[in-house]
């Protein structure tokens, strides 16, 4: 779908609704409530594909059936603009969050509050000179934001912040895609790997059976 023309976004919403409904019915009716193979939906540009109906409820119920959804957003404000008050419910049902960097203030403030504070030691010293010289030192423990909003905004592009349920947020290096064992199969490595949808659809036309075509059916048996 076009990421600049929202005319047919409703089709994507229908597809996702049908997808989740069929998977949940399959899990309940055939596998006792849990799919035998985990299904992970990578929903890129989640804010630009239109609203998925009842997403706040789906996020809470599909994971018990071995289904999960990964929402990729540019900023938290995008989610709140589409799902309004339900945005916090959707975020709350995500066990893991990864911040790759950005400058949107709502996202930075939410992350700043989540990171919490650290304890720092502060020493104040004073010296008085005169007929009688005096010296004093004051020691205090203070709380400081682990990372302030301005520090988050200028975070190193090679770093990311990962939040996992039950674990304190931590700073990590971003994965180097060029080190992936399958990187050589991507279009970034070689333009010949680029998927040409028109060429693919054209090749499929040669395999469409016509009413007057003759074919042979071979029955195979499993050992």
Would you kindly provide a brief summary of this structure?
It contains 7 helices and 7 strands; from the N terminus they run αβαβααβαββαββα. With 223 residues, it is α+β, with helices and mostly antiparallel strands. β1 (39-43), α2 (55-61) and β2 form a beta-alpha-beta unit.
Give your account of this protein's structure.
There is one protein chain. The chain contains seven helices and seven strands, in the order H-E-H-E-H-H-E-H-E-E-H-E-E-H. The chain is about 30% helix and about 20% strand. It starts with 8 loop residues before the first helix and ends in a 19-residue tail after the last helix. The chain is of the alpha+beta class and about 220 residues long. The chain has a three-stranded antiparallel beta sheet with strand order 3-6-7, with no helix packed on it. The protein has helices at about 10-30, 55-60, 75-85, 85-90, 105-115, 150-155, 195-205; strands at about 40-45, 65-70, 95-100, 115-130, 135-145, 160-165, 170-175. Strand 1 (about 40-45), helix 2 and strand 2 (about 65-70) form a beta-alpha-beta unit.
């Amino acid at each position: 779908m076009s990421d600049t023309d929202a005319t047919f976004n409703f089709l994507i919403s229908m597809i996702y609704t049908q997808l989740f409904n069929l998977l949940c019915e399959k899990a309940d009716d055939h596998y006792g409530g849990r799919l035998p193979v985990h299904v992970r939906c990578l929903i890129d540009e989640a804010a630009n594909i239109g609203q998925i109906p009842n997403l706040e409820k789906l996020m809470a119920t599909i994971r018990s059936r071995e289904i999960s959804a990964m929402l990729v957003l540019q900023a938290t404000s995008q989610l709140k603009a589409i799902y309004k008050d339900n945005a916090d419910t959707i975020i709350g049902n995500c066990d893991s969050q990864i911040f790759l960097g950005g400058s949107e203030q709502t996202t930075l403030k939410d992350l700043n509050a989540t990171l919490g504070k650290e304890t720092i030691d502060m020493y104040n010293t004073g010296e008085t000179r005169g007929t009688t010289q005096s010296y004093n030192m004051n020691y205090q423990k203070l709380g400081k934001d682990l990372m302030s909003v301005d520090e988050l905004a200028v975070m190193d592009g090679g770093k990311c912040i990962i939040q996992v349920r039950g674990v304190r947020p931590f700073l990590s290096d971003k994965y180097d895609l060029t080190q992936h064992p399958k990187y050589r199969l991507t279009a970034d490595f070689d333009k010949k790997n680029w998927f040409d949808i028109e060429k693919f659809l054209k090749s499929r036309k040669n395999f469409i059976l016509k009413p007057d075509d003759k074919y042979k059916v071979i029955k195979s048996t499993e050992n």
